[in-house]
Amino acid sequence: MAVTSAQIYGWLERYAGIVAEQKQYLTGLDAAIGDGDHGINMDRGFQTVLVKLAPVRDKDVGTLLKTTGMALVGSVGGAGGPLYGTFFLRAGAALDGKTEVSDRDLVGALEAGLKGVVERGKANPNDKTMVDALTPAVEQAKQALANGAPLEQALTAAADAAEKGMKATIPLKALKGRASYLGDRSIGHQDPGATSSYLMLRALSDSLATLPQRATTTTTTT
Amino acid sequence: MAVTSAQIYGWLERYAGIVAEQKQYLTGLDAAIGDGDHGINMDRGFQTVLVKLAPVRDKDVGTLLKTTGMALVGSVGGAGGPLYGTFFLRAGAALDGKTEVSDRDLVGALEAGLKGVVERGKANPNDKTMVDALTPAVEQAKQALANGAPLEQALTAAADAAEKGMKATIPLKALKGRASYLGDRSIGHQDPGATSSYLMLRALSDSLATLPQRATTTTTTT
Amino acid sequence: MAEAAVTTRLKKLINTPETEVKDAMAGMAAAHADLIRVEYDPNVIIRKDAPRKGKVGLVSGGGSGHEPMHGGYVGLGMLDAACPGAVFTSPTPDQMARATAAVDGVAGVLHVVKNYTGDIMNFEMAAELARGEGAKVNAVITNDDVAVQDSLYTAGRRGVGVTVLLEKIVGGAAEAGADLEAVTTLAKKVNANGRSMGMALTSCIVPVAGKVTFEIADDEMELGIGIHGEPGRERTKLKSADEIAEILTSTIVKDLPYKRGDEVLAFVNGMGGTPLIELYVIFNAVNRYLTGEGIKITRSLVGNYITSLEMAGCSVTLLKLDGETTKFWDAPVHTPALRWKV
Amino acid sequence: MAEAAVTTRLKKLINTPETEVKDAMAGMAAAHADLIRVEYDPNVIIRKDAPRKGKVGLVSGGGSGHEPMHGGYVGLGMLDAACPGAVFTSPTPDQMARATAAVDGVAGVLHVVKNYTGDIMNFEMAAELARGEGAKVNAVITNDDVAVQDSLYTAGRRGVGVTVLLEKIVGGAAEAGADLEAVTTLAKKVNANGRSMGMALTSCIVPVAGKVTFEIADDEMELGIGIHGEPGRERTKLKSADEIAEILTSTIVKDLPYKRGDEVLAFVNGMGGTPLIELYVIFNAVNRYLTGEGIKITRSLVGNYITSLEMAGCSVTLLKLDGETTKFWDAPVHTPALRWKV
Ligand SMILES: Nc1ncnc2c1ncn2[C@@H]1O[C@H](COP(=O)(O)OP(=O)(O)O)[C@@H](O)[C@H]1O
Ligand SMILES: Nc1ncnc2c1ncn2[C@@H]1O[C@H](COP(=O)(O)OP(=O)(O)O)[C@@H](O)[C@H]1O
Ligand SMILES: [Mg+2]
Ligand SMILES: [Mg+2]
Ligand SMILES: [Mg+2]
Ligand SMILES: [Mg+2]
Question: Which residues of C fall within a CB distance of 8 Å from D280?
Answer without folding.
Answer: 23-25, 27-28, 31, 67
